[in-house]
Each structure stands twice: as structure tokens, then as C-alpha cells.
Amino acid sequence: ARRLAAEPGLQMAGAVLPALAPRRRSEGAAWWRGRLAIEQRIDGAVLLTGATGFVGGGILFGLLAQAEELGVTRIVLLLRRKDGQTVAGRLAQLRANVAFQEVQEQFDRLVTVIEGDTSQKNFGQSDAAGPWVQREPLRVVLHCAADVRFDQPLQQAALSLISASLQVALLAKRWGASRFLFVSTAFVHAVPAATSALQERLVELRDFDPMELYRDAVSHGKWAGKAMRDLGFPNTYTFAKAVAEHLILQACGTEGMQAHIVRPSIVTPAWASPYAGWSGDKPSTIVAAQLLLLKRCLRIFRCSAHPCPLVPVDVVACAAIQALVASAPAAGGVATIANATVDASEAAKLPSFQLLVDRFYQLLALRGDVSLPEAGLIFRLNRWAENATVFWLLDRVMNVFPNMVMAFGAQATLFAAQTVGLDSKALQKQCKAMQIIGRYSTLPAQYEPFSAPSSGWLFRSKVRLPEDWDPVEYNVLIQRAAILFAQSGGKSAPPPRSSTDGFQDICVVSSRPWWCDALAAFTMPGSPLLLSCADFMIRQVLKWMDFTVKVDAASLVSATELSQPLVLCPTHRSVLDFVIIGTACFRLCPLLPRLQVPHVAADAEFAGLPLLGGVLASLGAFYVRRGGGAVQPDPALRAEVSRVFQKGRPLEVFLEGLRSRGRRQLRLRSGLLRALRDVSQRTVALVPIALSYELLPEDTSFFDELRGCPRPPLSTSALVGWVFRGMRGELPSFGEARVRLGAAHVLDAAAELPVLLAEVQEQLVNLTSITALHARALAELLELHPAAVCAALRSGGVPVHESRLPAAAPLTEAERWPLVLQTATLLRARLPQQWARWL
Fold first, then answer.
1. Which of 162, 303, 402, 633 could crosslink 354 through cysteines, CB 3.0-4.6 Å?
2. Which residues, at least 6 apart from 604, have a Cβ–Cβ distance to it below 8 Å?
3. Average pLDDT over residues 622-635
4. Domains in the chain, ordered, with CATH?
5. What is the pTM of this model?
6. Between vectors from CA 78 to CA 155 and to CA 32, what angle results, nearest 5°?
């Protein structure tokens, strides 16, 4: 297990960490401004099919956002009844979707609905469609509705993809539309070209007549199926789309309509519209694949290093609308074909499928969603699966067989329950879910032509990636979408765009079962047994305290891209400080090797503690004596510092000296840094670390000290008693601690320590985090409503995280004042100067 956990491929690139925090950029309707080159306006009504789908929803948002510029006077959606819901109900549900919140006014003014099922004859009505009933003339029909499953029987694919499209095209002509747009797929090219990019032209079907292929497909399909295999199509979906393109162009040419074919490749989450990371109402394509990996429904995909032919859905929507409003085709021509793909010239800006999977498992391991040994095993299996034969075997063993067994077990369980009369809706729902998951077992094999092609899928396209495109950030958007679907039970949720969204928080101590902590501690590569035991025990004690520790992942970049030895400089609020930082580094070290468990410069008072002093020294602590405003170095300090730097482990020093009473920011001391610089005789990097707590075990004793009571001495027996209270469940809940790292500062022989310390201190204050508990404490002191205080803080640019502690739990004076002072320290710039200086 340790060898798997030490897999080098799990180490994260430093560029990924900043991308975990949201970047402020244009999104939604603002992203659309000036993006279309409008040469012929619509000036009338638009009929749209598939608006509740992924691509159709993206196009609907674009039409609403640019309605005035395009001259759109009405948008009519063709919807069918579904799951007992009327079309009016589905329209109301679509309107309430958070994706359309920004364009709600345009939605209410422009959007209406008519009932119809494109896959049924006469759209599911008893008679043929009547005349156009809207007051505004119909100008454009966009046909996006499609069944995108790859494993449809050929007859079903022909009916749902070809018959339905031809029926909509004829309806467009009957209702007077002049332009018809058909959303196809870029994979109408059966295989990628070995030496060139695939062009924007109709695909040759050799000697096969498209109409004859269609007629055969909707009957028995034997000849059409043989033609599909001869032409090299990997599935019925791409084959049916290729045939549909030919027939659509013929039909539109006969009727004298402008025909526009738009071919997206693998459609992935939005870059900016309706919002960054939007993925529709259900997972699809790569997001669905990653969701199934996260849920362990699938294990193995065959991946290659070729650029993945993905394209964001908003880029596809923009290409579709642009095709409609570009100049009319030349005289005699009635058709345009556009690849809504990333052009071959920009393919290098796209991640490979291999990179998508690798970084997904890196992120899952960082967040703790999978263990390091499991992630290392999957990483190795995916490398072996690059061989086609090995993939075939692993796919059957790791994907197909377990899901077949699960689906069979679900069916058998349901049958047995029904036989003995124990059937229930909950059991039926669970068994149905297992059967659905079982059907996904063939997904890796279906994806193989696209995830591991013999040569890269490259297209010639007029589409260009957005100017602010960042491939690393987009990779994270895809991962975020999959994780959000998993957290919401498969329901769509917008990825939050604030610094308090929690996605970038790494929960290094949580309420996981004890065996998960044991697995994490004792499989840690290169960890001595004593360190693993200490980590396991620390996690149990913190869980007895109901204490959660979260690290801001984006802030870790400051400690991962440095070549100098690290000196970690945390705030000093509790005896838990070095415990929390040590546990966090222990947990993150395999993924971020620079963050090894640090050697702690501890006060000499700890050395005198029976048993505990020796244990801390064995774990890497060394002791210094403080006094007279400076640090008096131990005679062995020079050798100790040299030994630490030679081992490559960071140093951890508390520049404030003593723990802060009341959580005010104490003036940083220069004595220890001066001593370290003198004895190390090398350049080091100081990394500020802000530790922000909700409640602390020392709150009461600190409050008593501030009132003039003597400070109780440190005691091993008190710690042991604390542990036993935790084992008996007698400890209260202490909430959470948040860890944020600041930008590193170089300490060398030329550095001016007063200036350096002032910069570090400023960062430590600015990195402080607060939660709703801090806002509640401030509200109680000011006799205001907590919600009003939270709103005021957020409006002033202060992020307020949610609190795990119940809002009804009363706060004592000893708990309230530290929370208030911590909040006030963060607000010092808005306070009178003398107050700010005191804080």
C-alpha cells in the first residue's frame, strides 16, 4: 500500500493549486457582448428544439442574452411531456433553472412553448401540425433535440436522429422559416485523419446512397449496419448523424431553405456562459465519466496523450448562433457546414484524456475523496490500459463484470422481495439505480475511439478559444462539475464563484471512520512508525473534540514552487497550532513533496514535560529558550538547524513568541529569525500561515488571564486527562480551524528584518478567516441580528464561511470576546487608528 501511495504520478503540478480558487472574469450575458459578427439579423421568431438539453440550453441562453442585437421577437420551444409532467410544467421548471436567472426578464417576455415530440410521427399529435400560430413570423428553426446514446440499436438511432430531423425540417418550411440549423456532431468523420485536420465539408459515404441507407436502417438494418462497419463508424449515433446531414441538405435544397449544419465535438462544461462550469441538468460526456469514476461505478478508461477533442458548451452555442447570422450563402448555394470545435492550431491548449483522468485522481486524493493507495493503484492500471489488449482485459475485470454482478444482484433482490411481499418503493428505486449503473459498464469501451484514438482528432474550424482561456482552470471546472453532481445526487448545481465556496478547502481532519484515518496514517510513504502513530492518535483526539481542519488549497502554491529551505511562520493562538500544521503537512506531503512534516522550534517549557517532551523531540521538535525580548539559542541549535536543512524538512517557528491571549495579532519578534539566519548561513523562504479558529480549549484560561488570573503551567497530566474526557465523549464541539498560506518572503544576509517582519505581519492579518460564528459573536455584542452582520461583512469584502456549530448554542463571555477580537483584527483598516494599532 505504501508503494502505491508513493506513486510519482500523484504529485500535483503547482499550476493546479491556484486554479482551485475562482478567478473573476466575464461570465453570463457579459461574455456575449461583442462576440457575434451579425451580418443578417433574425428579425422575427425562433423555433428551438432540445432547449431542456445541454447544447439547447446553452443556445437558448445566448439567444436571450443577445435578443435585442439579433432582432429576436419570440422564442418558441418545442417540448414533449415527460415523466407525467406537462409542457407548461416543464417550461416553468426551465424558467426556474438557475442558469437562466440573469436573463429572467427576457425569458418571461420572449419564451413560449408548444407541445410536440420530435421522435414521434406528427410530433406525437393525431393530426399533422397546423399553421404557425404566433403573431411574429417564424424566421429560424434550430434543431438540437437528439438521443446522444452511442449504444442505440440502428433502427432506433435512425428514427430518433434522422426521421426526427427530417420531420422538423419539413415543419420549418411549412411554417415559413427561411433558415434551418441542424446540430450534428464532428464525429461524422468516422476516424481521425492521420496527417491532416478534418475539414468543414460533407462526409463522403463512398458508393452508399444516403436515402437507401436510411430506408434500410428504419426497417431491418442489416445492409445499413454492414455499411456502417465498412465505413468505419464506431457507433450508431455518429453513423446516423452522417446520414442525416446528407438528407437534411437535400430536403432544405428542395424546399429552398438556407441549411446550416453545426458540428460540435465532445461538448463539455461552459467556460463562461451561463456561468463558468455550467454542465446542464445532468452529467454528460467527460463530466459523466469522471462522476462514474468518483462513485467507483467505473475504474478504468483507455487514455492517450493526444489532445482531447472537447469544446465548451458556450463556445458551441456561440458557433451555432454565428452560423445563423453570418452572411447568406453565395448564389446557388443553400448550405453551410461549420465545425463547432477547437481548431487544430489551438489543439495544444486542450488537455489530453490521460491528463484529465490523472489530474482528477490527484484532486480526489488531495480532497480525501479517495485514499492514496487507491489513487496510486488506479493511476498504474490506467497506464497499463494504454495497451489495447490489456485494456480489453482490465475493462472486463474492473468495469463490466462488477457492474453485471451488481445489476444481477439488484434484480434478484427485487424478485425475492416481491415474492415474499417485502417490496417497497425505496427498494425498487435502489435496485433501479443499480441496474442503470450496470448499463454504464460499457462506457469506457464506447469512449475508446475518442479517448484513445490512433491519431489525434484535429479539426479545421473558424472557432477560436476565448481570449482569457486557461487550460488548467478549465480542467478544474470539469472536475468541479463532476464533484458537484456527486454531492448533489446527480442534480445540477452552479459552481460557487466566491472565496467561501469550499471547493478549494482540503479537509485534512474530518469525521471519517477511524479505519480511514488508520489507512491514511500507516500507508503514508516514508513515514516512521512513531510519526504514523502520532498522526492517527491526533486525528482521533481532534474528532473527539468535533474539530475539523481545513486548508485553503489555492494558498499552498506559495510553498510548493520554491527551491529554498522553508521556514513556516504561523500565527500562535493555541497549543494545537503545531499539531494542526504537522497533521496537515503529513497528509499533503505525498501530493506536495515540499510540505514535509516540519521541525518545530518549541518553547523550552515543553522540554520539561514528562514523557511528552521526549515524544515531541522524537517527532522533530527542538527547544529554544526565550527571554529578555530575544531568543537565547541552545548550544545545540546550530547543529540542529543544519541537520534539519540537510534532511529537507521545513522549520516551523512562532514569531509571536507566546500564544496570543484574545486572538489579537502580537508584534512579531526578530530574535529567532536572526539566530536562524546566523546559524544556517543560507537563504531561506519565510511562509506566513494564518490559523483561524472558531472555539479553542484555552478560551476560558486565556480569558481568566486577561482578567488578571495567573497562567496555569503546561502539564502532561492535564493533556492525558483531556484525552480521557474525549474518549468518554465529554468534550464539547470546537468547530473548525482554517489554514491559509501567504506569499513567501526571502530571508538572506541582506534582508532588513524590520521591513520583512512588517510584511509578514500584514499578511498574517489579511489571511485571517472568519465564519458565521464570529459574525454571531459580534452581533451579540452590538445587539444586532447575526444575518445583518454577515451581510454587512460580506458587502464590505470580508468572506464569511459557514459554521458547523449550531446557531442556537449560547456563547459564554470567554468564547465571545476572542471571536469578536479576531473579527475586529480583520476589520482594523476600517477602525479608528488607535484601535487598529492596539489590535
1. 303
2. 623, 624, 625, 626, 634
3. 60
4. 2-9+358-487 (no CATH), 33-282+309-351 (3.40.50.720), 505-768 (3.40.1130)
5. 0.90
6. 110
